[in-house]
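ESCALATION

Customer reports they have been waiting on this structure for their group meeting. Please prioritize. Original submission:
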Amino acid sequence: MADLDAIRQAIIKGKRNDIVGLVQAALDDGADPNALINDYMIEAMKEVGARFEAKKIFVPEMMIAARTMQTGLDVIKPLIEADGSTKEKLGTVVIGTVFGDLHDIGKNLVVLMLESSGFEVINIGENVPPDTFVEKARELGADVVGLSSLLTTGDPYVKATVEAFKQSDLADKVKVICGGAAVTKKFAMETCGADGHAADAVDAVKAIKSLMGLN
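Update from on-call: job pushed to the front of the queue and completed.
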């Protein structure tokens, strides 16, 4: 049997050269792709986050761990997508990183988790201006729009994007949810007036289902 805990340890220790073989071995042994993500990969990144907050590791180590996880996710993604294609879509989510921010690992993980849960997700990239969020949401028929921001310098653009939706014809049609390391629940919902907040990828799925009345 494949050593599933080795997947968690590889991510924590940033062993990017090992992760593909470990994940593939687990899949070949019949491991459930969603279980690998939820029980091992996400848990590993939670541990990395805790170590970062405790100042036991620093940004370079955290980014190496995140890239290692992304490499592992790339192995799993085709299976998730193939499985998801047979499911009835729960709704359409447009997601992007706000203007001034080029980070995408957290956002891409949310995309994968939403897709595996049955949502149609359109990732519109990074450094996205407020008006583009609104235009894409209208064009693609979004039910929910997700705003990601890793840096506090993105705070004004999170607020501006939420405001853009409030002032548009989509104000009563599209729910806006915010997440990312820089975005607290209080800032997202009280300061910006967003409809929801997500602490991580797993929470994003729960929050979006709740906004759509699917829980």
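Sent to customer with the following note: The chain has two domains: 4-84, 92-211.
Escalation resolved.
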